[in-house]
Amino acid sequence: MTTAAATMSPEISENRPSLWTRFRKAHGITYVVLSLVGIIWVFPFFWMVLGSLKTQREIMAVPPTLLPKNPTLSNFTQWFTQLHFGNYFINSLVVALVTMLGNLVFCSMVGYALAKIDFAGKNVLFLLVMVTLMVPSVATFIPLFVIISNLHMLNTYFALILPFLTQPIGVFLMRQFMQSIPDALLEAGRIDGAGELRIFFQIVLPQCKPPLATLAVLTFLSSWNNFLWPLVAAQSNKMYTLPVALSLYSTGQNATNYSVLLAGAVLVVTPILLLFVFLQKYFIQGVTMSGIK
């Protein structure tokens, strides 16, 4: 045995460096590929920020320049002084926040009922929720507009918020996560005399921080970037959201003012990036623990 081990040990010692070298090379290639993909993904945002600091003449220059020769904040000041950015920002913020809060409350309630409460037709109801995920939003656009118009809600916050207070993806996300909560924990609450609402708010919701953060980011992002519905439902300047204002006021009489357009894009993207940075930890946990791929 010792003789065989002695004869094999030189081969093993010779193979180890080669395997380690191959392993390091494979990791090196992976890092290079990921770095290139990251640069390709980040470059448009980098170009957007740099372009927002340029004048229109410099943006249209041939050949194009990467760094601004004379950086200026006039494009941003134009949004605040001439284009009423504050009004559009408040509209977008109100719509996005109320929509997000509504989804957090209602989607979590429906998800709790589908995950932890037995009632007739529960599976059929969940199937309907899943089916609605397959229906494109364009298919419901006209019926939704007719309903809102008949209710005389056009050009109000109600028109911009009510159709999106509960979304199927939020119900699915919360239901998938709440299924992992032990039933014994809920039964202990019922034995102590707690009602369903108390169990929901004091036992279930405190354990749902990751999916709630994920749902908050998804709904806020969807509402903040929503363009087509606010374009139709908001029919005056005072109710325009940022994406609508960005599309309407970046175009002049003869040509598009790209410098102002890029500055507006920076203003629109910044809140989303900040929200994701603050909720990144919970967002990743929610995606990995809820079964969404």
Automatic annotation (TrEMBL):
The compartments listed are: Cell membrane
GO process annotations (BP): transmembrane transport
The primary site where this protein sits is: membrane
Topology with regard to the membrane? Multi-pass membrane protein
| Record keyword Ion transport present | no
Query: One GO term of the cellular component aspect?
Result: plasma membrane
Known InterPro entries for this protein? MetI-like, MetI-like_sf
| PROSITE patterns in the cross-refs | ABC_TM1
Q: What is the protein name stated in its UniProt record? A: Sugar ABC transporter, permease protein
Organism encoding this protein: Bifidobacterium asteroides
